[in-house]
Design goal:
Elements lengths: L16 E6 L4 E6 L9 H23 L8 E6 L4 E3 L4 H9 L3 H19 L7 E6 L2 E3 L1 H7 L3 E5 L3 E3 L13 H5 L5 H10 L2 E3 H6 L5 E3 L4 H12 L3 H14 L4 H15 L4 H20 L11
Parallel strand pairs: 2-3, 3-5, 4-6, 5-7, 6-8, 7-10
Antiparallel strand pairs: 1-2, 8-9
Amino acid sequence: MLREVRNVPVSNDYDQLDLRYDAEHKALWYYVTPRLRPCFNSDLLRELRTFQHDLAQVNAAALEQGCPLPIRYTVFASGVPGVFNLGGDLALFSQLILDQNREGLLRYATACIDVLYPNAVAFNQPMTTISLVQGDALAGGFEAAISSNVVIAERSARFGLPEVLFNLIPGMGAYTFLIRRVSPDVAEQLILSGQMLSAERMLELRLIDEVVDDGEGEEAVTAYLASHHKRANAQAALNRVRQLVNPITYDELIAVTRIWVDAALQLSERDLRVIARIVRAQNRSFLADDEPRAMEAHG
């Protein structure tokens, strides 16, 4: 992690987030350290939303006073070795589906959108959001990674949307984010194949912006910040133009999520057994082993 810790301009009182502030480049790094499995549990989603609200408020106050923004960049990274994020809380999903609890499932899915949308639109402020992917980004982890304006990945990182393995599609932004970077037919092929993609292949598809050697991800982000710092205003303006011309809207994300919820509630017993098998594999990998094996969780 970053060696130097300076005064963080927002609250740093979190259980599953570790914040670092680069005052020189006005970049706020946040490392996600989920409890138990490296997925988006409900408490983590609440912490992320609180964190996002705080940083948006800090910047809004500066804008109102005509002062320079204290935060021009956010860097979303993982504090779990070998894993960026495995996505949704499958154990919770399966229980809500078994209970046919549509309200609970929609509440969780909406909480995911409430975190991804601000990141995708850079908080509607003159900012740039960055994802640093070290390790595996699967399902919602894939969606979270590509929701940022800029994505930098280490060479061994792997990306995938495995929901089709249990007869579902990703519902928290995958299609919305993908078709703004690739054609609809490529997006649909990625969703329906469930294939794993290397960082190099993601770069070829222009789904990410840079690939660096393992262990060099943080240095690559710092180099990006240094090289773009003097044109941060231009980059932020371009982000806003992109959002104006080809907007990502909250309404679109929520509408897709409602379709996902309806589809999830139709999963069969066989489909739920597949989810249960994945959860057991995740538990073996991340609750018992010292060396997490991310891909076993979807094997």
